[in-house]
Structures
1.
Amino acid sequence: MDKPIVVVGGGIAGLSVAGMLAGNGMRCIIVEREASLGGHVRDWACMATDKCLRCFCCSAEDLVGYARSSDKIDVRTGWELSSVSLSSGGPKQAVLKRIGSAEEKTEEAAALVIATGFEPYNPGEKILLGHGRLDGVFTLAEMDSLLRRDMLSVFTRGRRGLRAAFFQCVGSRDANSGANYCSQYCCKAALRMALKLMHESPDISVTLFYIDIQLAGKYAGALLKAAEDKGVRLQQGVPGEITNSEDLLEVIVESQGLNRKEPFDRVILSIGERPSPKQSVLDQLGLPANEFGFVSSRDPLDNSRTAIPGVYVAGTCSGPKDIETTLEHAGQTAEVIMADLRKGALR
Amino acid sequence: MILRHSTEVNPTGQSAETAQRVLVVGGGIPAVAAAQALMETGVQVTFARFRDVAEHVYFDMPAVHVGDYLRDLSAELDEVEIVDITRAPVVWRDHGVFRATFEDGTESAYDCLLLAPGISLRPIPLDLPVETELFTSRIKALPGQQVLFLMDYKELTHPALGMSAIRIAAETARNGGKAVVCFRHAPVLHVFGEALYDSARKDGVQFVRYGEESPKVQRLGDGGNPAGFRLAVSDIIDSENEFVWDCDRIVAVTGPDASSISEWARTMADGDLDERGFMLSDNIHSNSGRSFASGVFVVGEATGNLDLIGCMAQARAAAAQAEAWMRRSRLKREDDFLSVSTACVRCLTCYRVCPHSALSLQPQVSRSRIEPSPSFCLECGICASVCPSGAISLRAYPEESIAGLIKELTPSEISGLTFVFGCQRSAGIIAESIDMPENARFLAVPCAGSVSDYIIWGVLAAGARGVLVVGCHHGNCRSDSGTELAAARVERGKGLGVFGGKPPRIGYFTIAPNESARFQRLLHEFLGNDLP
């Protein structure tokens, strides 16, 4: 079993699959287009207040460190998968190409893992929400990025007593823009961010507008309880239009069948997860996608294998997920690869 | 009852066999999935199976029949030794392995434990009519009946269970019945969640959304047969008017009840629980399904609001984790990085504080002994930091390297320096990528909890300007209590001793490895430097 497993994508899903396979003695190649490993999570911030809120963001540092130091993992940043040849039993050869050059390398692959991640929704598409136009409108990812750089002052601008509003499902559960699904991560991420903001600047007051709170996954109940205890105002509602009025934001909230205007100082939009733009190699493989554009797995309860033997998926490229679910999905992918290789070896 | 192969364990605990052995205890889908996954990767599995597990909390998938799927999985357990049990085996740690005694008196040894204890549903709230039924996987469609599915009553419904109820409501409506689903939050898990909701509406299911005000349900008539009920609720979306509906049956949809987790599972996993009482099967550093208790993995609904897709992934991921863990622990068993010398005074402090159960007590008639189990040890060094007689020798323990470093420095060099002891899993990762200020010397330690009073005061006594201990955030310490231990030491130290008429400069904070900017701010604040 000397042939490596080729993992396409160096985000937490790809890193986790490779890390677990390497931990079980298998050789992997991680192919990542970007210059650095870690993907989106590398821009996200720790949500700990006086204790860890189990956001799992810091797991990226562990995973990157492991991939960089393991002699079983060959990291190729700045490379992409150019083509794959298939045999009946699975992938045979993977041709890797260095981005921006003609350099190519052919690897005999034991298996191929697609872990190409997601694309965040661009809230600029919803012009009425004013993102990119109004100073006080942020996305959850932008808040993460500010906290990560210890620059919360860009958000508060020294103001005390800020009224902040979170709006959920921006670009999710949105049939009009072709994304009629829940992005799975944002209820918990917004609750954590609300708790984090109240911890960092205790004079802030937070309202969280939701369509429906999805209390799925581990620790979700504890987060909701903590938010209620801390006085986060939880309201049903979606944003209609956000306008600037002097120093504050006037928000039209569509709530319970009525439109009403509420003033806030800052607005944070929970943006949805969209499928990664299609990669030519996926077309070449003929991997089917579901109606929303995520890579289809074999069936919902065996969702690390694809229709093609020897080709696997891990993480958000197969559907929206939070970090913890992504790590578990990646762990499952590693397990089924080990099982399939063992069966093949026995045969 | 299937007879187990006896697994020979010699007196030193070195198994004659080389195969890895796992004991899976539990029942239900996660246990079966984990047993199958372990078997597939070549691990020797004993599955101690409870026939009568707590209610499954699942929802049917489009295109997959869960019952068939479970039967298929069970059929593939051909290489698994299955033992049907009515009582959990008694499990203890002995010479680096787990020993289990089953109810028939047989005993076996294992490298690791995987627990899937299952969970019961929260009971029907007491203020609902006594005839109210609890929604479980056994509730089937109710053709021709008028059925109310009541969700989020008193406490929010588990979304996966809510989706399951919506499917049953749709089936009821399609078969000549009438179904009303009354909720506060529509459950829309996975990419097919919205579609389920839309199709149920097309099938004729009526959805009523309520707000702060709970729905009122009362029994009609005098309790004669058949029972009838009246629902009165304000629908906050479709109208401000009260929605009143008479129905034949009420089905309450609740969620997992953390208080129902079996005592045996809590004991085996050393009782790690989150704020809601679910089993804290993992922390950030140890990933899927691993508890703080070394070598114990917990999967399934006892770990939180999981659905079936999540449970399957978690069980398989935990199987892969368990295999990697056994690989490492087998190597460690042969190593001599942890030992207890004859200087031991048998105070048992180390035995009490070890978060990984790597030190066991060997009862003896004259004097009991502390016996190290390297295979369970994560080398956090907490034991060595509390040992009053210096009897514990741990290779990773930083005391000697710190002493060596101090010897290399002149007193004048030391007097200008603040020593920063940071956990290698958080601050240590940050320190590798930043420039340390000149008036600080960073030392990565295996855990903030390993920085003993002796180290702190030794450094200060050598004339250092100050000591700063940096741990992982509370709840993210891989050694559970290490970060609290460090905080308590520093807090206590601030109130002790005076050096040259001045109180000692000692400090403590917590950090995550992705908080480089915050680390630098807090570090410079402590050092009294201007931020670069």
2.
Amino acid sequence: MNIVVCVKQVPDSAAKVVVEEGHITWGDAPLVINPWDEYAVEAALQKAKEHGGKVTALGLGKEEETEALKHALAMGCNEAIMISDPALVRIDNLAAAKAIAAAIRKMDEVDLVVFGKQAIDSDTGMMAAQVARLLGLPALTLVSAIPALDPDSKTIRVVRSIEEGKQVVEGKLPAVISVGKDYGEPRYPSFMGIRKAARATIPVWGLEDLGIEAPSPVVLWSEVMNPPVRDVTTEIIEGETPKEIAEKLADKIMAEKVI
Amino acid sequence: MMTNKVWVFVDQFKGEALPASWEAIGEGLNLAGTMGGGVTALVFGKDAESVAQNALHYGADEVFFADDETLADYRAEPYVSLVSKLAKENPPEVILFPTTTRGREIAAMTAVDIESGVLVDVVALDVEDGKIVATRPVYAGKILTKVTCDARPLIITLRGRAFTKPEPDETRTGVVTKVNPALSSDDIATQVIEYTQAEGGVSLTDASVIVSGGRGVANNPSLTPPDGMDEKEAEIWRAQQGFKLVGDLAGVLGAALGASRAAVDADYIPYEHQVGQTGKVVSPDLYIACGISGAIQHLAGMRTSKVIVAINKDPEAPIFTLARFGVVGDLYDILPPLTEALRQRLGK
């Protein structure tokens, strides 16, 4: 099986992200693999192990933004490829999806493309669905388990997490899936994996390699802002006994007229 | 067939519309007010006639209604192909979706078909000099952006509870136009095998009240776990006793049950309850945090809640910086009398 897992580099989820002088900054917080993508890599590695085959990690960004790809390699992916081109620096979701879809088309017979549920920076949660649509493949998003996969009959069965519960869906391969945290804990990179990743050279594919024109973005970020400061005075409720505190707090909550 | 400039996709599951759909119709009416015309609702499903009628009650004056076996269980392909087909035949200016799991996905894929942009998970919409400007949170709400898009039809998904739900009026009527599915069942590469409903309870993203528990729920040394448990089992057992108190309060308030990432990662409670950057981003009217210290990822996921109440033993816990009311104390002491006090006041 040929499995592609798409990963993105983002500021650590613990980073204090703010706007300073009109620009987004996260200070010296580390850049890491998008947390959702770790579950995607885990799913890809498990399926490759069960059915044989290789896992290719695919990234899109500046040439030097290799943190996510190196993490994916360290977890056990066989190879990594970076899509990078000066014309892809300021693009929107659909333009990025077009570049990713073109890269997947360029690879040999991909059976399964795996994404994390969403990226914790831009928070669009649309990439898997858009890449699937561009490739004309089924989109199976928000996957929490893959109870069956058969490379011979080219079928996959997944459990999707939706608002109302769990939906079991079967689709044909090749397919595009996105994976959530409920898939299960991602493995830690092994010591050997980290050494291998550190030595790896990651091929860079530009627009010419992909054979596409520069996709032009239509969605523009016209302004970035810090959210309004929460203007709140905290009132600490005190009392002699828990019951007294509880009674006072209950009165305060009732007075807010929110229940 | 009318030609309203604003369309709203109504997300329904087994004949029940998700409330964010009606909020989207409300905001659609506001947009239509600046553009002229009314709102056309898209209702797809099987035996969802009542949803189509409800769309009229909530303010649409036209419904494109598809009633077909291939649309009975939600699958992306038949839904997307039908939205795209309608939008190509008779392009509107704007198509609004609720940011639900289905709404987000259909919006994303429709944008591919009609070569347009999506303003996703928007919390405010303004029209400035005739141009639609959307505000959306990124980095889990640590940053807000203003986003625009010149492509048409413009696709926008609206975050649940960010827009006002209109009052339904059952005397309202409109035109329900039947439309045929765009795909036949042979054209669809996916099949829904089964569906299991989530255990009862209020959904976090729709909830107007949320009661959440964190690591502190396991912190009651006076409880004695049953014999034969190892240390981890005993810890989870303690946490479950704590979450029972959190759940009792949630029950009295008709609230959804939330949790911090720490509690989920420690296996105290399933992931679907996680609030925060890698869980659900919520915005209830009342958020009661019990034994949650308030890591930055958790605060990012609930900071827009209207009234926040924090109960924590540590007076320095960051959660208190967002709280309107705080209790420095043990949730095991406070929750039972608080549940009782609110039960009395609510007459339950």
3.
Amino acid sequence: MTSQEAENLVLDYVYGELSADRKAEFESFMARDEGLRAEVESLMDVRRAAASLEPVRLPREVRKTLIRAAERKVAKPSFLDGDLLTVFERFFLSPAFTGALVVVVALGVGVQLILETGIDDRITRIEKGERDSVHRMPLGRADDDRESFAPRPLQPSAEKAPKADVSTTAEALPKKVRRRKRLAARKPRPKAAATASAGTSQKKVMAQKARTTADKAAKLKETVGAGSGGYGRIAAKSAPTGPGRGKSITIDKNIIGSMASAPRENQAREGGDAVSAGTGARYIEADMTTAGLAKEESPDRDKERLADGIDGLNGAGSLRAQGDDAGSLAAYMAAISKGDLKGSRLADALYRAADLALRLGRIEVARTFIKRLAGLPDGESRAKKLQEKLKGKLKPDKAR
Amino acid sequence: MFLSLLSKRRASRPVLSLEGQSDEDLYRRFAGGEERAFRVLLDRHGDKVLGYLTRFFGDRELATDLTQDVFMRVIRSAGRFRGDSSFTTFLYRIVRNLCVDVMRSRAAHPDSRAASLERTAGPDDRPLAETIPGREPDGEDRALSGELSRALAKGLERLPPEQREVFLMREVEGLRFAEIASILDVNENTVKSRMHYAVVSLRKALAAFREGP
């Protein structure tokens, strides 16, 4: 052992941290080294002085406080206290875990049920892109169309409407409806109606609805007769309760007024079902298809419908082409009285209406239209022409 | 079945005398729900921790508060003790962390409580160094021992904190150098070095006391 090594071991020796061998070696070296012995002695003095310090006692109050805290801790241990098994034990037996397990199981069962059975929610199905199947659903008669209160997509216009696969569509219909459709198919189809329905094969699906709506078309004459814009306005007030109460739906000229009565009746029949005005409107719009189908099954319906002016100028022209001057005049009158026509279209309508009125001998009506036509910027020449016709018409009467 | 296994497990825990148990076993038992184990631990270490803190700060009141804090932390940490180190190391790490907090606080607020051993406290307004208890010998020895204790306390006060803590841990608490190194997270030789300087400083202080004014 060198002096340096002995110097490094002084503290270990003084504090008793040397092994027996090292201690013996150190002591033998110390016996030969006076300076080392003095060093050790002075360190021992410090140790003795430190040992003279009396141990401090923890106050009783502090001890009690700590023991109470320990008791509380034992009574209500922290979640992560203890070994792993204890923590697991605490976790799996905790009410929170049980509750969460119940919720998760319930959710899982619910999701499984939904996946298996699906939700009978037409809106969801529409969102999923199942519009076609919704289209194919029978809009139904008054006694089977409770479902038809659900929102339905707007029927595309006739020229844009895709050609439906009639066979597939027919298969999608309920048996009852298919039977009615077969019966309707047996009836002879007038040429005009067949023409009108050309390109609207999808509408055949809705033929059943037409039967119901045809019965209501008679009511339209009253509304058309009422004058400007009165027709086609449905009072949803008939719904005694629900968000639709007190609201009204204005149907534009492209919506068949006769159909407007269907939701009104349905709403009334439902007696307070929460059918909103918006839902009613969609319903009516969907029923436009049905109205078109009326042609197919009942050509007279066309006349009545068009005579009501709902289809506006096109309908009037169509009736005129069919030789139904009276119906055509009525349609022109309705279109004009609605007030939506402007400019050249209004002039055309006035001209044709006046012409028809003259043809039908309704002189006063013709005069009214001619007068109005004369007041239009581009109607003066045509008004003159009509005036001449009118004069020609009046001459024979005078001559008589 | 699971519940019965758990109940068997609980029943299988042996009921032994706690006095002969190691600190680590006692602490685990406390974490497992045996409050008595904590009492034994408190009996073993409460006074030592208070003594260490009293001599480190020279403020009995502060030391008492800090001791309470230390054992509150011990209680809260029950269950998180993995047994990687001894309970003593674990305990004195808490003690040291609290000491560091107080030292930092003292550095930030020099006028705060426990500013120095010279600060007076208590109804008798004696310097705190004088309130540090020592052995109570009879007669002449009593007076000599009391003065020696005060001299040592003053010497401790003048030590840098890192030397003071090493000295107190080794001398007062009886921790081995390796344990101190582990608590302080330093090399054992560093601990010995600090201890050496501390002892040399204290020896000088005691020599000055013996030589007299």
4.
Amino acid sequence: MAERCAVIGVGQTKCASKRLDVSVAGLVREAALRALDDAGLTFADIDAVVIGKAPDMFEGVMMPELYLAPALGAVGKPMLRVHTAGSVGGSTALVAAHLVTAGIHQRVLTVAFEKQSDSDAMWALSVPQPFAAPLLAGAGGYFAPIIRAYMRRSGAPDHVGMKVAVKDRLHALKNPYAHLHLPDISMKVVEDSVVIWDPLHYLESCPSSDGAAAMVLGSEQAAAASQAATGRRPAWVHGMAMRSEPTMFAGRDQVNPQAGRDCAADVYRQAGVTKPRADFDCAEVYVPFSWYEPMWLENLGFCEEGQGWRLTDEGATSMDGGDIPWNCSGGVLSSNPIGASGMLRFLEVALQVRGEAGEHQVDGVRRALGQAYGGGSQFFAMWVLGTEKP
Amino acid sequence: MADRPGSDQVTTLDTPIRLDYHFSAGAAATPYLRGLAEGKFVGQRCPVCRKVYIPPRGSCPTDGVATEGAEVLADKGTVTTYCVVNVPFAGQSIEIPYICAQVLLDGADISFMSLIQEIPADQVRMGLRVEAVWVPPEERGPTLASVEYFRPNGEPDADYDSYKAYL
């Protein structure tokens, strides 16, 4: 990285099933104005806007970034759209950060959103293809067989997924922006919910949400100015990486994809992380279906392959006494505005590093990992943020 | 629809959109689709790694070269993994619950998603040996709809080691 880059403002909307009071433009503007306010800035201070969302079919509006420029103060400024399926919120933040580290811009606004109530993502993910059987049934139908393969490979007991489902919903109770607030959540409640994609229960799956996330990323100079104006400290980017791989190839490890392992190795090298479980104080990781927590614990090197479920089962990832809390915000299991879900992971680690996560703040966070994945686990985006200047 | 109480302002409206398109099969998918019309699974082989792809997409993602030939595969194989779909959604064409499995045809190096029937959902398992049930010859066409579904073929389950590299 040539220039330093920091998160100097964050904003998000309360996730909900249907935000009927706003259009997509209103939704993204709400998040953007909150991020600007947090940074002590206005649209006039922004040099460029980088926006991301998941496939356009999810709302049925092609290239929505074109009509969103006025709502985001981007008229007459560079505006860029990023698209990497569900990981897009993470990739979008990384593209914005690169514009700062490359020394091109001082202050970049980055925004990601999904308004699932405008269309039907389940339908959009299940459109029959001419060369395949019409069996696709949303993201859960795609990932459930991979989860079954993980369970067979690792020998994990059946209840581990339900533990994640409970843990992340308990975390969500501390986050006012989370979509699902389920105070009565328990193993029994999850177990009693319908098995919709066997082996997955309904409550082991993410909700469909409307929501937007925004951040202002700034140079060293911009960070100093914002801190002087607002008193809020920046969260410094210590490393960032993206990787992808084909969705289908002979010999592909779908449970523990190479692209994810390579992405983690790259971002850890940049940030000087050698023992992720010890070196990070918390992590926000894209877990849309419960079993992806133990699977990503292994993919991200928090433990040996085949051992992820033990960490989950022992409570290591819980805010309630765990040594490496994962998804203190409630994670994707509690809020899933798809295009924004990756950015929420990145934004939540910024909140943790800045000490501004409120009730779900982990004490004394110095360094944290944000991860997003997308498509058929073929896109990965990660960043490491820290309190110290890199 | 007027969403805000006390307001007659229209805030949302449903606009169903239909899109018809022509699918150009190309050099790799053409023999595959013609094979389906004849009740055969036809894949292609990578000339470098020798892996057999079905359905063939025209190139090997690992070696970045065109796949070649017309490999006629058995119409039986192994369930490597599966899920039971029990969620209704718009546009669904199969009655729930149904078994959606990854079937690795004998001789292929990649599995594809298939419907499994003629077995109760709670008896499906990884390693189950299955065979294709084709629609009657006069109803077959250049589409995977020529395969009605797969069903158990009575062979003993495949050993986990024989398919674990395909998960």
